[in-house]
Amino acid sequence: MKRTLFIIKITFTLLVLALAILPVILSSHPWPEASRDYLYEHALTDTGAVNTVSSIYLGYRAMDTLGETLVLLVSITGTMGILINLGRESEEEEAVSFSLAPEKRPTNAQRTHLLEVVSSKLGPVVLLFGFYVMLYGHISPGGGFQGGVIVASAIVFLALGTETQTKLTNTNVLGRIEALSFLVLIIAATSGVFFESGFFGNPIKSGSSLSANFIILLNIIIGLKVGTSIAVMCIAMMGGRRGH
Amino acid sequence: MVIERILIFLLALIGFTAIVGAKNIIKKVFGLNILNAAVVLLYILEGSRIGDQAPILGEGITNMVDPVPQALMLTAIVIGVCVTALALALAVRLYKATGSLEIDTISERLRSEH
Amino acid sequence: MSIESLFLSPVYLPMLGAALILVTKHFFTDRQRRAVEYLSALIAFIIPLIAFIFLIKPVLEHHQVHMILGTWETTLGIHYHFDGLSFLLIMINLLVSIPVWLYSRKTGPHQETFTIIFLIQSASIAATSLTADLFNLFVCLEVMGVTSYVLVASSEKNKAILSSFTYLIFSATAMVFFLIGTFGLYRISGSLAYDTIAQAKNLLSGSDLLVARLSLVLIVVSVLLRTAVIPLSGWLVGAHSNAPHAVSALLSGVLIKIPLFALVRLLLLVTGTELLGSILAWAGGISTLLGILLALREHHTKRLLAYSSVSQIGYVVTAYGLALASGLETEEGALLLALALLYAFSHALAKATLFMTVGRACDAVGSKDLHVARGALSALRAQGERFPITGIAYLVAFLSISALPPTIGFWGKNSLVYLSKGHGANYLLSITSVFTIVAYLKLSGIFLPRKNQETQHVEPSSTALTSLSLIFLTLLLLAGGFWYTDLQTFVVQVLSPLGATNATLTSYSALQDLLKTGLTTTIALLLFFIGSKTRLERYFEARRESTASFPNLFFGFALMVAVMAWWLLFPGGAL
Q: What is the pLDDT, as a whole number, of residue A202?
């Protein structure tokens, strides 16, 4: 009886929702071209970006990007807060407080030497690539989020490897960069209010050759924020580096 | 054409079935991801119908695809990833608390708690 | 400073505050971080409050601001719209968030990042009230959602983790359906701004109209999930009862109402939503009765309060639905919407106070079970509370939610029920008023003196901030009651550019209502005494706690979509 009730509920749910979304997906209304045409004309002069996608999400609709950054901040804070208590149960570890208890790593003995050497050699290269993607976001596909994630994976490589000694994998340093870049982002967003171009407006007058600088600035800040926060979470889940 | 959209629809349906019907909570999170991916594909696919060149201005670019869905989906993908991370952290915590990943066992064991 | 720069302050000032706290957390000591938290709360809540006091006059003069963020000149940008509705919603948020935050200093979650997330949630609530763009609404709702999941999970009890997980999966899936709806509407209209979408939709016909209506249904049901009407309310009991007390107060007070009213902006511009309103009115009515019956079955204090939230939000949704059904441009519709908002305000105050006082009482007594918890007043006095502020605040909130004078709830609920006469849901609302009083009488048991006079050893704790927040809320509840007619005139006038110009509540007699209230209270007292003396209560009560299961949650979601889609697609005579 319980089983049949379960089946009925699931079938009803699937049927109704499938029927509800099917017409929307299969609609044959022609896709609107007005935005594309507008951007074709005005994206470069309004925002200074050649990549029209960047001009949308960092120019015309920058508030959505801000919201997205807030989601990232809150979810990473929440994830660390939820997982942080797991490490407290195993007290005999050294002062690494975030690790998942079964993943005890007193030494790096579980990783092969091959992994450590290769990833520490790859780390700086990937880091450079990440910064490239971040900075060139307004000219070619890329941008703050994409570059930031690549930077995060580079930092994880550096943390996995042991050949390099760098402060970049210290969670304190990363946390500070994250906090500062978030503050600069909010200040950049609010600066528009005081510069008469509205909230999240471009404080540099559009049309001049400098107006792309605002997008580059936003790309860098967002990239740093995203990169460092994801890196902190990954390093914390890995159990920290040996010696930390 | 239509066949692509039917496939996207089936993908969304598979994801949704996993969310509702799967007993393992990790599979529910998989389902959420599949559903998100299906919707992202839908937006990008439909937005690309009106052109055939990448939306980056330059020499000889006359027929771009619509950049608006791509920008919207950037946001949606990041939000989806963040929510997945949070869901997985909660799932790990539930596993530590009850020793099981099946939703029915978890509710049973937590119900009898304190 | 012009009005343009003032009205966005509740959006960016909390974000600024959160950024400051984050920086202090990483660079300075713990004590300095706590100090900066107070500074940020000042920036985030008090400065916008002052700014909004300056905005009272422009809002009364129906000065609306419709702008595109960033002053771009195309509809591709994000439209924001400030008018009376946003003003009122943001005021509700500020007036409830301030006491809740003060309360959390002593009682609430003590994690380092609590205030950061609290402030970000406040910013997202303000942004939801102001936005006039569909995808921005999606992003703001997601920020609100993610902060809720994290805040509920900050309780660290395992049940809270499960409730947070359930809420997360349910809400995230609904937001994907919201995205599908946005897809449909963008395809139809080529824009994401409410006014362009509505303009395009009102000209449609044939299969395009079908697609547009379905998309709208998906969007409306996804937003209704956050409001937790029956059948979409399965997640609320777990989340609100297992969260920390301050978080429950905020969630029940503010977060279940703002998305509902943010949707008004879109529904206002779209024609043909009368049937949608009727469905909402019935859903609200059923929600009211079912919610309170489920509340009566509970013997866990916070679960009782959570089910009562489901019941009370039903009142708001009924009035809202009736407003939609009569058309928001008519006098009657505008008045109903104003009453819905006023009742939402009074419930926000009352429910926040209830969660905070009951939370404190249960902590002092050490149990949340109604059969066990007794003697809260003496326990609180042992903890250092000289004057029984918690008890008095509880009493006033009890009066407000039971619709007894002289609180704001008395006027608000009775005006609402009066205006709903003529619609079937009116009977449901009236019956529920009786049961509400019974349920809260049952809850008040925790304040009765203990049977055996054993003293409990509790450490005295200073209660200054908590008392301050409770006094603030109590004063608001009473002030709202004394000056209700002025408040109502203010709200109606502020909202009236949405509808007709001078709607007034005529032919409403307070005397009639006093008689009705007296009758309701007497019946309730009788029922309560009969129930508690006989063993009837024990048979009625829930044996085991029910946890929301995923098939049930999504079944409710599909049911709501089915009902709305059926009615919107086959309008049976109307447009």
A: 59
Phi, psi of C5 (to 5 degrees): -85, -20
**Helices marked H in A26-170:** 34-47, 52-55, 62-87, 113-135, 144-160
Enter the DSSP assignment of A167.
G
pTM (2 decimals)? 0.93
Asked whether the beta carbons of residue B96 and residue A145 sit closer than 8 angstroms, the reply is no
CA distance C15 to C27: 18
Phi-psi label, residue C69: left if phi above 0, alpha if psi -120 to 50, beta otherwise? beta
What 3-state class would DSSP assign to A90?
Answer: coil
Q: Tell me, what's the pLDDT at C224?
A: 93
Residues of C in contact with B68 (CB under 8 A): 76, 186
Bridge partner residues of B64 (DSSP): B53
Q: What is the pLDDT of residue A194?
A: 64
**pLDDT, tens digit (0-9, with 9 covering 90-100), for C261-270:** 998 888 888 8
Is residue C557 predicted with pLDDT exceeding 80? Answer: yes
- Cβ separation B66–A82 shorter than 8 A: no
Which pair of tokens denotes residue C351? 């429910």
Per the DSSP assignment, residues forming a β-bridge with C369 are: C300
Quote the CA–CA distance of C241 and C410 in Å, as a whole number: 26
Average pLDDT on C88-102 reads: 93
* Continuous segment of H or E residues that includes residue C433: helix C425-443
- CA angle C178–C181–C185, rounded 5-degree value: 135
In three-state secondary structure terms, A60 is helix
The reply to whether residue B43 touches residue C554, judged by beta carbons under 8 angstroms, is: no
Q: What is the pLDDT of residues A70-104, one digit of tens each?
A: 999 999 999 988 887 665 444 344 433 333 444 44
Amino acid at C438: V
Give the closest residue to C122 by CA, choosing from C92, C152, C154.
C92
Rounded to whole angstroms, how far apart are CA atoms C477 and C466?
Answer: 17
Out of C9-13, C317-321, C542-546, least confident range: C542-546
Residue C194 to residue C186: CA distance in whole angstroms: 11
pLDDT-flagged residues of chain B (< 50): none
Helices (H), C190-300: 194-201, 206-227, 234-242, 245-250, 258-262, 264-269, 274-296
Q: Residue C382: helix, strand or coil by DSSP? A: helix
Is there a cis peptide before residue C497, judged by omega within 30 degrees of 0?
A: no
pLDDT in tens, A44-75: 877 788 899 998 888 888 889 999 999 999 99
Distance from CA of B61 to the nearest CA of C (A): 21
A54 and A137 Cβ atoms separated by less than 8 Å: yes
Torsion A196-A197-A201-A202 (CA) sign? negative
Q: Give the Cβ contact number of residue B68 at 10 Å.
A: 29
Mutation pick from C173, C188, C549 vs chain B, by most beta carbons of B within 10 Å, is: C173
Contacts of A39 in chain B (CB under 8 A): 55, 64, 67
Amino acid at C22: L
B26 interfaces chain C, CB cutoff of 8 Å = no
Residue C407: alpha-carbon gap to chain centroid: 18
Contacts 24+ apart (CB under 8 A), A117-122: A117/A161, A117/A163, A118/A161, A119/A157, A119/A158, A119/A160, A119/A161, A120/A157, A120/A158, A120/A160, A120/A161, A120/A162, A120/A163, A120/A164, A121/A161, A121/A163, A122/A157, A122/A161
Q: Are strands C65-68 and C79-82 parallel, antiparallel or unpaired?
A: antiparallel
Gap between the Cα atoms of C161 and C180, Å rounded:
29
Mean local confidence (pLDDT), C433-445: 86
Average pLDDT score over chain C: 85
pLDDT of residue C414: 82
